[in-house]
Amino acid sequence: MSEHPTTHYRTIWISDVHLGTKGCQASALLDFLKHTESDTLYLVGDIIDGWQLKGKWFWPQSHNDVIQKILRKCRQGTRVVFVPGNHDSFARHYVQQNFGGIEVVEETEHTTADGKRLWILHGDRFDGVVQFAPWLAYVGDHLYTVALTFNMWLNSARARMGLGYWSLSQYLKQKVKNAVSYISAFEDAVMQEARKNNYDGVVCGHIHKAEIREVDGILYCNDGDWVESMTALVEHADGSLHIVTWTPPAVVREKKPKRNRLRDTVVTTPAASTPLAEPVSRTATEREENVPAHTDESDKQEPSSVIQA
């Protein structure tokens, strides 16, 4: 049973799920979707990883369950808006279409309960590598996949040692100077464009780094990802925004019972004609001194004589 109660938000934003890859934390996302409700759900790109699926098909049941859960939310009245990213750019051919109740848009605007106008887009258009060196983006994606695979092995070992989840790639992003500079440049470019278009803020994904900050009156929000950080951006009824980091309940594995070594022991029962010996009782003094129990006088034997040379 999950540790999380069901929570209702005015709006939820998720992105960079990368369904179709082994690094996708589909079970955690499904648990999040089961225990949250919202008036509007924004899917801010890279929900399905078309790049990986082109090379090798990977689609376990948990990934299918996520899609089914989102469609079920549509049927139950949640407005679902899909803003495609670079990994699911195939969906950009279907902008302004509606699939199972899901609206597909290139980008859109959201007004919070307290009146802020937020620009919603994936953010890959501000990534110079994606725009001007797509081959390098593919190489980077391959290296990132390798890092995620190693991260899975590492966290599997950590789990066996009773340690919590730790993201290697997030650690490298924070420590490598070029990665920090790239993220900072991306955030600045997005905010400048939002200011130019008279928005109060922007919500995006793409760089897998959840954050909320305000610079010179422009609010920058990134909802993170469901590969490393398992985060979402949420809006409360009063219009306030914050990042939710989802921790699915730990799976408690039942210990296998130890094998009873006596289970396979062959017990020989006495023949029916052989009477069973009556149990012999001992006094407390005899038990402490390890003295043989009393028997009938007829059972006593004379002490053996000592033979001297």
Automatic annotation (TrEMBL):
One of its GO terms (molecular function) is metal ion binding. Residues 257-309 are annotated as: Disordered. Pfam families: Metallophos. The keyword Manganese applies. Residues 284-302 have a biased composition (Basic and acidic residues). GO terms for cellular component: membrane. One of its GO terms (biological process) is lipid A biosynthetic process. Keywords: Cell inner membrane, Cell membrane, Manganese, Membrane, Metal-binding. Residues 10-209 form the Calcineurin-like phosphoesterase domain. This is Calcineurin-like phosphoesterase domain-containing protein. It comes from Advenella kashmirensis (strain DSM 17095 / LMG 22695 / WT001) (Tetrathiobacter kashmirensis). The lineage of its organism: Bacteria, Pseudomonadati, Pseudomonadota, Betaproteobacteria, Burkholderiales.
